[in-house]
Amino acid sequence: MDDFATRSYGTSAQDNRPLFGETSARDRIINIVVGVLTSLLLLVTVISAFVFPHLPPKPLNVFFVICILMSCASIGVLIYWYRQGDLEPKFRNLIYYSLFCVVMLCMCANLYFHDVGK
């Protein structure tokens, strides 16, 4: 089988981009780090919504977390499709952008839950 460094993908220029399903170790490490950090922040946000400032939780806090979780569900579908090979590699940037938005939403939610800035 030929090496992916010598493929031309039907063009005249050499291209060293991997095909679907082939990922470098660097890409896998980035995916794992981004996924773990986002998951931990999401877990902290969900726990904070139900615990802070006191029990029982405020309905607005629960609604905020439900909205964040619903946006995570759509990102989860994109990640699933990407790993199945149904999406082109350019969608990886969209997934990273969406995860960045979720991280920012979680940070805003935690700041709100803990009354920072009052």
From TrEMBL:
Keywords: Membrane, Transmembrane, Transmembrane helix. InterPro entries: DUF2678 (IPR022564). The keyword Membrane applies. It comes from the Eukaryota. Pfam families: DUF2678. The keyword Membrane applies. The chain crosses the membrane at residues 29-50, 62-82, 94-113. PANTHER family: TRANSMEMBRANE PROTEIN 243 (PTHR28603:SF1). This is Transmembrane protein 243, mitochondrial a. It comes from Callorhinchus milii. The gene is tmem243b.
